[in-house]
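Posting this for the archive.
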Amino acid sequence: MWRTNRPVLDAGLRQSLAACRARWEARCVSTAPADRAETEKGVRHAYRAAGLQAPDVVWCNGPRELAEARSEPAAVKTVGPLVNVVDRVRSSVDPSVLNIVRREQMSAISAGMGHFPTGRLVIEAMTDVVPWSPGGRTSKRWPRLVNRLKVLKPPNWARAPLVHFGFGQHAGARLALYEFLLDNFGLERQLEPLRGLVAIARSCGWVMPHENVCFAVERHDTLKIDAVIGKLHAASGPAIRYADGWERYFWKGVRVRRRLVEQPQGITLRRIDAEPDPVTRHCMIDIMTPEKFIASGAATKVAIDETGTLWRRSWGVMGAWAAVEVVNGSPEPNGTYRHYFLTVPPTVRSARQGVAWTYGLAEHEYRSLRHRT
């Protein structure tokens, strides 16, 4: 079989690969309204490639409307079972594509495309709202039930409806590669079945395909991600929100209650002490600010050395919290020296060890580095 004589990835392909990845990263975080006509065209193409009849397309403004639409009693009889359109379409792709794109090229392309963590973040945020099947309950009990069952099942279990059946703008890791091959290797014929999936991901939030009905969801109208830590985060308002009113609040990747973000002044030492979840408790301190937490007398001074002061607060079996107070070496314009508070693991035994941890170093490595500089 004929094989291309191109080098692994020439300059043109590398540039095209970077541009393709940038496009899909932008699509993952897009909050623009869906192109409904393009989505419906893509749905028809994808179903046809999967060997299915074209479905009715039902639009929803967000995951809440999707859950409600799928929970209607009539939905059990009309929409049909979930269908894995993605896998069915992928299995229909002409195998000769492997003979046209060299193995080393495919490996380089896959490595260059990398992963799209935004999709995972959003899907994980929606695990408590999308029932397994039509007719599934969506009452306020549903999130609590899912959380209880997660104890008995692997974390991926709760995401199954979205991960294994739904797809869309957050499926960049799966679809960006196909778009790149379509655009750069003359594989229109071999990859023709995938055009529908690519069109869907380009034009809407995501879809949930059933045999007779394909539910299509608008894009989120709000999505806030801390670029430094790569996690959902919003210091004010929801980190993710859809037009149907569904929203979630996150603080540095941790889902928190709305009032912690909307009413930070309500966070008190008493409420922090009463919070049973250590992760949420740490978020509350972070929102209050470690400086105010320590200034209130809530933490105990544990150790002092040339790098700073180590503070700790323990709740016994409920966990502990620690921070290192360091002083800026350069004075402010008014002659004072600014103090910074660095949150560190509660197992830290000295300020030096805590500062070293913030650099990803062991205490002895940090001490040696300080001596050299």
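The longest strand covers residues 320-327. The longest helix spans residues 11-29.
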